[in-house]
Structure formats: C-alpha cells, structure tokens
Amino acid sequence: MASFNSAKGQQDQILVEENLFARILTLNRPKQLNALSSHMVSRLLELFLAYEKDHNIKLIVLKGNGRAFCAGGDVSAVVRDIGEEGSWRSGARYFGKEFILNYVMATYTKPQVSILNGIVMGGGAGVSMHGSFRVATENSVFAMPETALGLFPDIGASYFLSRLPGFFGEYIGLTGARLDGAEMLACGLATHFVPSVKLPLLEEALQKVDSSNSATISNVINEYSQQPNLKDQSAYHRLDVIDKCFSQRSVEHILSALEKERKKKDDAWVATTIQSLKKASPTSLKISLRSIREGRLQGVGQCLVREYRMVCHVMQGKLSKDFFEGCRAILLDKDKNPKWEPSKLELISDDMVEQYFSKVDDEEWEDLRLPARLDLPGYPIAKL
C-alpha cells in the first residue's frame, strides 16, 4: 500500500508517494500551472539527492497536478524578488539552484520517468528533458518561449536543443514554437508516447519494477506506448526548410532565408515563423543562437555553467533590461507589447553578444559550482 507524504509548508507544492520500489513526485501548484517556485526547486533537489543514496528505491516518477506538467520557472516571482531586494542576486540564487538540480538529473544514477501530460515549458523542460525517460501524451504541449520574454533557452537547453535532428533545436529555441506529443516523440524530446487513459496503468506497473535497469524500465513503458501520427501541418514535416534557414550563421541571415522561402511560396507556417522572430527580443535571439551553437560542442555541465553566466548578466540588467520589460509586458501588465532595447537586430554587435558569455564584473560573483558527480560519458564535469 502506498503512503503519502508532502513537503512541509509552502502549500504542499511537492507531493510524495512512497511505494516499495518507486517514488512518485507530483508538482502541485495547479493554479500556477506548476510553475517552479524556489521552494519546489530546493525540495526536488533535496529529494533526488536523498533517493540516490537509498538502495531500496529503484526509480523516480515525476508528474504534474492539473493540466500542466510544469509551465516553467516562476519568473514573475523572480522579478518581484529582485525588485523587493533591490538586488539581482536573488534571481541569480534561484537560477543557480535550478541549474544544479538540472545537472543532478542529467547525471542521475537511477531512472527518472517524467510523465508530460500537459504543458511543458522552460523550467518544466529543465526538470524532465535531462532525465532518462520522457513520456508524452495527446495532451502534451512543449515550448521554450524565453526569447519572447527577453530571456534565452536556459536550464541546459543549449545542450538538448542542439542535439535534436538537424537545426530543429534552433527553430524551437528561437521562435518558441509549440510542439504536441507526437512531434516531441518524433524529434526525440520524448522517449515514449502513452495515451493519457493508460497513465494510471503505467504508473501502477512502474511501482512494481524492482530494477533500475534502463532496458527493463523502457520495456515496461513500451507495453503502454503507441506510435502517434504527426499532423499534416506539423513543423517536423518541414525539416528541409528548417535546416536550410536555421543553419544560417546569424539571426539576420535566418530571417533573410525565411523571407526568400516566403517569396517562393505563400506559406502560413513561414509567415508565422517570421512573425515569431520579429516579435522576440533581438538581444535574446542573438545570444540564444550563439548559446545553442556552443552547446553542440559542450557537455551538459559546461552548458549549465555558461548559461549561468548568461542568466546572471540578464538578471543584472546592465547589458539589457529586456528580461524585465518582457516579464512586464507578457506576465505582469499583459499588454503583450514589449519595448525592446536595442529594438533591432542590426543594432546589436558581436561585441555586445560576447559580453553575455564573459564572467560577470562583480567582486562577489563566481561561476556556478556544480556538485561533484560521476564523470559519466557525455556528461563531463563542467569547466570553462
């Protein structure tokens, strides 16, 4: 018989179900679409580290309560805390702990099964994409919408986006395009697709698995999986156009290539893609493209250390205040009319982009210190 425990205080934001071999963790802020609070990040990190040492626990299942798995980090709270404290450091602390959690998940020695039955965005991808198994359903909606907020795809996204087929990662990272469960499976963001009606049966089966063997876990999930059909209008059918355009060396060249495609044929998808890029923060687009390109050549730890430098520059607001303006326009005032500064791509030089990748000029600042982990293949200990 399963027993239920929950985190003390903070309105039980993480629910814990204890079974003989498994731990089922439920993100429990349904009204906020399970946006990750600072408390949730700390609690998840605490639990994952404790479970890794418990030899009786064979696997962890992570899911969300309500219509979202997790809509991202609670960035509106981050902005509020920065305002109240009068210091960007509170934001840096939040992202620092979140990135450490992402790294622990990426290097975890036991299987993590994330059930992505609903919205998966930003930080929600951070607590799922680095795990062993990502189960999509017909309700899954994936997006990395950071460039529309004046941020960039963080949480190690430069690692996993850069490893998607062709230049599909650049496409979804720059445009914030939404993918359904079938598309997530097709491009590799999901490892399995299970109809939502079968999820209770899957969870029940996983609780009985006395093994941490990945092949064994995969076989269990396979029993409930199916191969979904991609919709006719799916962006994944346009990989040839995406590769042609998003392989270009700069955002300006990407837009130019897309404009050429639009002139060739009246295509609503191309028009929507151009519109998404033109609405996003020009600074965010430029640093995001470089981040994903660098991610192709780096381990996940290196990506997280670099992204932490970048996010600290964003929080500090010296190079650009686009993040605060994006949060104002999209999340707080909701007028959806951010005033980006600089306002055009051509006003952002390579030197300006370069500054985001350098150490932060602050005597008390230091690079992200990732915990010592096993130096697993593909996951080198981070050094820049």
Question: Which characteristics define this entry?
Answer:
4-stranded mixed sheet; 7-stranded mixed sheet; alpha/beta; disordered C terminus; 11 strands; 16 helices; 384 residues; globular; 43% helix
Describe this structure in a few short sentences.
With 384 residues, this protein is of the alpha/beta class.
Topology:
Blueprint: E1 3-6, E2 14-18, E3 22-27, H1 38-53, E4 59-64, E5 68-70, H2 75-85, H3 89-106, E6 112-116, E7 119-121, H4 123-126, E8 133-136, E9 141-143, H5 157-160, H6 168-175, E10 179-180, H7 181-187, E11 192-193, H8 199-206, H9 214-222, H10 239-246, H11 251-264, H12 268-279, H13 282-295, H14 300-316, H15 322-332, H16 350-355
Describe the model.
The protein is of the alpha/beta class and 384 residues long. It is 43% helix and 11% strand. It has 16 helices and eleven strands. It has helices at 38-53, 75-85, 89-106, 123-126, 157-160, 168-175, 181-187, 199-206, 214-222, 239-246, 251-264, 268-279, 282-295, 300-316, 322-332, 350-355; strands at 3-6, 14-18, 22-27, 59-64, 68-70, 112-116, 119-121, 133-136, 141-143, 179-180, 192-193. A seven-stranded mixed β-sheet has the order 1-2-3-4-6-8-11, with helices on both faces. A four-stranded mixed β-sheet has the order 5-7-9-10. α3 (89-106) runs antiparallel to α14 (300-316), α6 (168-175) packs antiparallel against α13 (282-295) and α13 (282-295) packs antiparallel against α14. The longest helix has 18 residues, at 89-106. The chain is globular and about 60 Å long. The termini are far apart. Mean pLDDT is 93; it is low at 1-8 and 375-384.
